[in-house]
Specification:
Length: about 110
């Protein structure tokens, strides 16, 4: 293969990694409200902080050009946090939300 093909493949891989990192950053920033909520168990909060520390630490299971272990651990921690929040009833939309247009019977004054 020619050098320009490898450069294009590398640029595409770098753009994909940057896009994934941006999405994860947005999800972590949105999850910060759940981290201070008292209704979520401590082990779920600790898992998120451990994932953040692991992501920025120089010690990895896979070499640094491959961020699959960092991304996987962070996604697992965020999923665990959101599952715990849903189980605690925090951050969950009510049954008759405006988005669906369905009204729950007996919720409005008659």
């Amino acid at each position: 293969m020619d050098t320009s093909v490898w450069l294009i493949i590398g640029a595409v891989a770098a753009l994909l990694a940057a896009g994934t990192a941006a999405v994860l950053l947005v999800r972590v920033v949105r999850a910060r409200k759940l981290l201070v909520d008292a209704g979520i168990p401590l082990h779920n909060k600790a898992l998120v902080w451990a994932a953040i520390v692991y992501t920025v630490s120089p010690v990895d299971l896979l070499p640094d050009p491959v961020y699959l272990d960092d991304v996987g651990f962070l996604l697992l921690a965020l999923r665990s946090l959101h599952t715990a929040a849903q189980a605690a009833g925090i951050g969950v939309r009510p049954t008759g939300s405006r988005r669906t247009g369905v009204r729950q019977v007996g919720t409005e004054a008659e």
